[in-house]
Amino acid sequence: MNADVRPVLKLRDDTVGVLAAMRGVFARDLKVAFRQRQDLLNPLLFFVMVVTLFPLGVSPEVSFLREAGAGILWVAALLSVLLSLDHLFRHDFDDGTLEQLVLQPQPLFLLVLAKTMAHWVLTGLPLVILTPVLGVMVHLDGNSIGVLCLTLLIGTPVLSLIGSIGAALTLGLRSAGVLLSLLIIPLYIPVLIFGTGTVAAAAEGAQVGAYVALMGAFLVLALTLAPFASAAALRISLSNG
């Protein structure tokens, strides 16, 4: 075999191995989640309950709900994702699977990325699917609902990626849920502001391309940096544990 070809073949084999490992972690997390359906349903039920109860507790007026509806749905989605973050690494930490992931020859940050994407598919994507129904409930028009779904489709992966850093940092600590909220909520604020701002601009008839592009930049930045930070935080948490 030509010596120049061997590095290329080795690189191809390594890439296939990494992708297979990521697919395995992703599929395993989906299977585990469907076996523990209460953890899967809790964020969705919380999302529906917050949006449903908000008009009863504040004001049922159509004009108010139409103006505040996007903010209500975004805050409810943010809190629902936050509610589910404590389970992102917890079960794997308790049964020893997390230590095995750290010892794998594949890069840990890619395995963490696979777990985070599984978390988004199980939590963030169902929230996006439920949004049109709840958007009608708070009297949003069709254009606003469409833009809201787009912002949530871009923004909820950012919430999962940023949240994975906090979940890794607080792994194994007492009162981890409270500490996780204190660490992560300030980092969520820019996503919340631009998510609701995009819908408000669409409702006023303004162009939303710049808002969507900026949220896309948030997603790219989170995809680039968050897996590395989460992997480093996991190593620290496991070494301290």
From TrEMBL:
<feature type="transmembrane region" description="Helical">
    <location>
        <begin position="208"/>
        <end position="234"/>
    </location>
</feature>
<keyword id="KW-0201">Cytochrome c-type biogenesis</keyword>
<dbReference type="GO" id="GO:0005886">
    <property type="term" value="C:plasma membrane"/>
</dbReference>
<feature type="transmembrane region" description="Helical">
    <location>
        <begin position="145"/>
        <end position="171"/>
    </location>
</feature>
<protein>
    <recommendedName>
        <fullName>Heme exporter protein B</fullName>
    </recommendedName>
</protein>
<feature type="transmembrane region" description="Helical">
    <location>
        <begin position="40"/>
        <end position="58"/>
    </location>
</feature>
<dbReference type="Pfam" id="PF03379">
    <property type="entry name" value="CcmB"/>
</dbReference>
<dbReference type="InterPro" id="IPR003544">
    <property type="entry name" value="Cyt_c_biogenesis_CcmB"/>
</dbReference>
<comment type="function">
    <text>Required for the export of heme to the periplasm for the biogenesis of c-type cytochromes.</text>
</comment>
<keyword id="KW-0812">Transmembrane</keyword>
<dbReference type="GO" id="GO:1903607">
    <property type="term" value="P:cytochrome c biosynthetic process"/>
</dbReference>
<feature type="transmembrane region" description="Helical">
    <location>
        <begin position="109"/>
        <end position="133"/>
    </location>
</feature>
<keyword id="KW-1003">Cell membrane</keyword>
<feature type="transmembrane region" description="Helical">
    <location>
        <begin position="178"/>
        <end position="202"/>
    </location>
</feature>
<dbReference type="GO" id="GO:0015232">
    <property type="term" value="F:heme transmembrane transporter activity"/>
</dbReference>
<dbReference type="InterPro" id="IPR026031">
    <property type="entry name" value="Cyt_c_CcmB_bac"/>
</dbReference>
<dbReference type="GO" id="GO:0017004">
    <property type="term" value="P:cytochrome complex assembly"/>
</dbReference>
<keyword id="KW-0472">Membrane</keyword>
<keyword id="KW-1133">Transmembrane helix</keyword>
<feature type="transmembrane region" description="Helical">
    <location>
        <begin position="70"/>
        <end position="89"/>
    </location>
</feature>
<keyword id="KW-0813">Transport</keyword>
<keyword id="KW-0997">Cell inner membrane</keyword>
<comment type="similarity">
    <text>Belongs to the CcmB/CycW/HelB family.</text>
</comment>
